[in-house]
Write a structure and sequence with these properties.
Length: about 180
């Protein structure tokens, strides 16, 4: 993980191994990290999610997308979402554990969904459509992302063929529903 605290990498590795429910900040102390260092970086367990979310959003915003203006909105959304999955790939195990935990606990997952909704708004700004469409479009894109994320978690193919097919189909439906590219 470039330009990020090594504690986040350690935390994500522990989450992949122990699950979100089994992970605690105290687990980082057992990884040759002082309690003071853990407390300096993460005050709460949820701060790990916030740091991960911030890293993904920042890394995605620094990804050079060479849109030439001829692409449809659907094509741009597809490219940016697939780039997001590429960034998540090294942390797929942690992502599976986090999403799996919150799927069965909607009240606990509410803050996680708020983080993801902010990430979707940032993602939409990368394709230059955040001001052109109603707020419900962001929520629709969040739904597309979450359902595609589920597919991606189960997709073990080298080229993410099932993920790309699902994303293409889902984006097509939402873009058609909103009568956009």
């Amino acid at each position: 993980m470039q330009d990020n605290h090594p504690l986040l990498d350690k935390a994500l590795g522990l989450i992949a191994a122990k699950g979100w429910g089994g992970f605690s900040l105290g687990d980082l102390v057992t990884q040759d990290v002082s309690p003071q260092e853990v407390a300096r970086v993460f005050e709460t367990k949820e701060d790990v999610l916030k740091a991960f979310s911030a890293w993904i959003s920042t890394a995605l915003s620094q990804t050079p997308f060479n849109f030439e203006g001829e692409e449809t909105l659907q094509e741009r959304l597809f490219e940016v979402m697939m780039a997001r999955f590429d960034l998540l790939f090294p942390y797929k195990g942690a992502s599976q554990q986090i999403v799996g935990y919150f799927e069965g606990r909607p009240l606990e997952g509410a803050s996680f969904l708020c983080l993801l909704e902010k990430e979707m708004a940032a993602l939409l700004s990368l394709v230059d459509c955040h001001k052109s469409y109603p707020p419900l479009f962001t929520k629709a894109m969040l739904g597309v992302y979450l359902l595609t994320l589920r597919t991606w978690h189960q997709d073990d193919s080298f080229d993410a063929e099932a993920t790309m097919a699902y994303l293409h189909q889902a984006l097509g439906r939402v873009c058609h529903l909103y009568s956009v590219g």
